[in-house]
Design brief:
The complex is a heterodimer. Chain A is α/β, with parallel strands linked by helices. Helix content of chain A is 40%, strand content 27%. Classes of the chains: A alpha/beta, B mainly alpha. Chain A: This is High-affinity branched-chain amino acid transport ATP-binding protein LivF.
Chain lengths: 235, 291
């Protein structure tokens, strides 16, 4: 579904992504794990085409989208990012946040269906509908952020550190939710520092060190490999 | 009784200050730029209303239908012509750019229309309503009602339309708004146009209350800075309450201390706010946004 090759990313003169090659096949969960500052968020931003200058080849379903604007990637390709730290609109209600999710004309046409879908998956959000998003707990905010992205009718969902700052019980819940989304046919690319939680449920995994991919392999295989342990202490 | 009179007059003019400041705070909230052209746009709108009235006998309130689109277009033009380039650079760049435009506009007005004070003498201009000892100036009352209506419309726009919600979203978190598929250039252009149109409405409403001259904008810009900082930078509710408060403070102090000293009082108030509560009444610390 998505493949990038010979992929570089830089902020001004500072190159943070070096010659990446990565493939996400349709219907799979792919994780990129790495320590703080390895370039995980930069990778996500580069796929969205926001805040970072890129160079190289990015194909989505065979189409070269490397030069597309962010709006086009969201609307036409159907790529949506759940950013690190949720990045909700704090003074807007939960419902308004979800509405912003279907901002593009394509998603807006399916607005009602989107709400039904998101509320059926995350019934808690319906109860919180009228509350300002900023007043929710971390776990609930993560659910709003996921719901907001789902409102855009995505085909490829990007998750930037979905487990960051969540209590263990919420980590399991989010993890289960990601699994459900996969079963519904969504393709998921996530970057995580928490290698255990992410690789466990991934079909394929990559290890990112200082902006370079150093290993790749089957999700749980990679998790138990000595290689990963060597570069990635504390797993 | 005199206090009630002052309170009412203060609230009436404060409503117009609120409208002026609403535009300034909207532009700041979305783009994080301090727009020094804002006051001059008020001046341009007042001249526009003045000439429409004097040359073509267009009533001020009918003239609004021309003033609003012209000022909105002017705002969009300023954004596309200059601000768009300055915004990618430092804060200083956008400050200098807007000060530059301000100087150009003021001098163009001086060249075109001289430094004479001009005001619209329509049939309302000297009317006032009277209840017992209370006197209420008719043009000021109309200006207040107009400001109230327009403010209500802006709030409805920001809360009940997709474009309005996108503007609010972009002012809370620009990065996240872009991820939603919001085109930031479009949002910036629209915000600048709306912010400028709002000050345009205020200008048209004020042109029978105050006499217009080329540097009039500076004094209103100063007031709206005080209002916006008092209310909290980027806060729309803050701009409204701040506007009303400054209107009352100014009117009361003009009466008790003298009209020439009224600026002293609200500038002192401004200093106190900066020291005691720098984020303003409704302000939060707003993160810097880099692009």
């Amino acid at each position: 579904m998505l493949s990038i090759e010979n992929w570089y990313g830089r902020y001004g003169d500072l190159t943070v992504l070096h010659d990446l090659k990565l493939t996400v096949s349709s219907g799979s969960i792919v994780s990129v794990v790495g320590a703080n500052g390895a370039g995980k968020s930069s990778l996500m931003k580069s796929v969205m085409g926001v805040e970072i200058q890129t160079q190289g080849k990015m194909e989505f379903e065979g189409e070269d989208i490397g030069h597309w604007s962010t709006q086009r990637r969201v609307e036409e390709a159907g790529i949506s990012l759940v950013p690190e730290g949720r990045r909700l609109f704090p003074e807007m209600t939960v419902r308004e946040n979800l509405e912003m999710g279907c901002y593009t004309p394509r998603a807006r046409k399916l607005r009602d269906r989107g709400f039904d879908f998101v509320y059926s998956l995350l019934p808690k959000l319906r109860e919180r509908e009228k509350q300002p998003a900023g007043s929710l707990s971390g776990g609930e905010q993560q659910m709003v952020a996921l719901g907001r992205s789902l409102m855009s009718q995505p085909r490829l969902l990007l998750l930037d550190e979905p487990f960051l700052g969540l209590a263990p019980i919420m980590v399991r819940q989010v993890s289960r939710f990601i699994q459900e989304l996969k079963e519904m046919g969504l393709t998921i690319l996530m970057v995580e520092q928490n290698a255990t939680s992410s690789l466990q449920q991934s079909d394929w995994g990559y290890v990112l060190v200082s902006g370079r991919i150093v290993f790749e392999g089957k999700g749980d295989g990679l998790l138990h490999s000595q290689d990963l342990r060597n570069v990635y202490l504390g797993v | 009784m005199i206090f009630l009179q002052l309170l009412i007059s203060g609230i009436l003019i404060g409503g117009v200050y609120a409208l002026i400041s609403l535009g300034l705070t909207l532009i700041f909230g979305v783009m994080r730029i301090v727009n020094f052209v804002h006051g001059d746009m008020l001046m341009v709108a007042m001249y526009l209303s003045y000439w429409l009235f004097t040359l073509y006998s267009v009533e001020l309130y009918t003239g609004l239908f021309l003033v609003i689109p012209v000022l909105a277009a002017l705002g969009a033009l300023i954004y596309w012509g200059v601000i768009r380039f300055a915004i990618r650079r430092s804060h200083e760049a956008s400050i200098l750019a807007t000060i530059g435009i301000s100087i150009v506009i003021q001098n163009a007005a001086l060249l075109l229309w001289s430094s004479d004070y001009r005001s619209v003498h329509n049939e309302w201009a000297t009317h006032s309503l009277q209840w017992g000892d209370l006197r209420i100036s008719a043009p000021l009352l109309i200006a207040f009602i107009g400001a109230l209506l327009v403010t209500g419309l802006v709030f409805a726009f920001l809360h009940y339309t997709y474009l309005g919600k996108a503007i609010r979203a972009a002012s809370m978190d620009r990065f996240a708004a872009i991820l939603m598929g919001v085109n930031p250039q479009r949002i910036f252009t629209v915000s600048f146009a709306i912010g400028t149109a709002l000050v345009g409405v205020a200008g048209a409403l004020l042109s029978s209350v105050y006499a217009v001259h080329p540097t009039l904008g500076t004094q209103f810009l100063l007031i709206s800075f005080v209002v916006v900082v008092l209310g909290g930078l980027g806060s729309l509710r803050g701009a409204i309450l701040g506007g009303l408060l400054i209107g009352v403070v100014e009117t009361v102090s003009a009466y008790f201390i003298g009209a020439s000293m009224k600026q002293l009082v609200y500038l002192l108030l401004f200093l106190v706010i900066l020291i005691v509560k720098p984020a303003g009444l409704f302000g939060k610390r707003i993160p810097e946004v880099n692009q």
